[in-house]
């Protein structure tokens, strides 16, 4: 069996599993956030809803109290109207504002750190249109984007890596998914140039995933080196005073000197 045929069988099998998962409540799993960035955006939206509900209910009750003080009470029907107004306010303001899914054209705007979070939220809403293997890659990519976002908090805005990240995450990734979604559904499993669109999408997302991981590792290299220096110092200071595996005692110099040497 060729690699292409085997990949096609895997995609078909995964699609059947995905359908079974949907029947068993998989919709709830798909509704979950793929990363902390998108979860934070949705959490901020929820807090706005809570604030709006609280303000609306507070205004209704204060207004009713003022009216009652002026006319000498609101009576039974006034209490009923207050209850109805409170329920209506809860129903209306708990629905707004809705989570605003970033438009494709807006993903790559503004700060790169915010762009990463917006990309996560955008990706979440593309899952229903993707084949099961691509969904798995997208969900795993959420964790990678979280890690990238953490590294970006330590990187200056004019760092040379920012342009690469903006192009990779804000342009290449969504463009690939948009190109796939533009293909009619019945053509996505037909082979062309040795692979189906489903297979090409999965392969492309895999390459992007590896590139995101590579960029994150490059940005984290300074922290990794710093941790290695501290580990060597602690091993010398409180351990056996020998560099592991070398059989040679570490030289006696301070942590600051070690940093300079590293």
Mean pLDDT, nearest integer?
76
The major pleated sheet works out as: none
Q: Give Rg in angstroms.
A: 27 Å
Helix-strand string: HHHHHHHH
- The total of beta strands comes to 0
Q: List segments where confidence is low: pLDDT < 50 over at least 5 consecutive residues.
A: 1-8, 14-30, 241-262
Helix content: over 70%
Strand content: under 5%
Q: Which of globular, elongated, flat, extended, rod-shaped describes the shape? A: flat
Q: How is this structure best described in words?
A:
- This protein has 262 residues and is an all-alpha fold.
- It has 2 domains: 3-31 and 101-220, no CATH class; 226-261, no CATH class.
- 71% of the residues lie in helices and 0% in strands.
- It is built from 8 helices and no strands.
- It has helices at residues 3-30, 36-71, 75-93, 112-124, 132-152, 161-181, 197-238, 255-261.
- Helix 2 runs antiparallel to helix 3 (75-93).
- The protein is flat and about 80 Å long.
- The two termini are 51 Å apart.
- 19% of the residues are buried.
- Residues 1-8, 14-30 and 241-262 have low confidence and may be disordered.
Summarize the structure.
The protein has 262 residues and is mostly helical. The protein has 8 helices and no strands. The model is unreliable at 1-8, 14-30 and 241-262 (pLDDT under 50).
SSE blueprint:
Layout: H1 3-30, H2 36-71, H3 75-93, H4 112-124, H5 132-152, H6 161-181, H7 197-238, H8 255-261
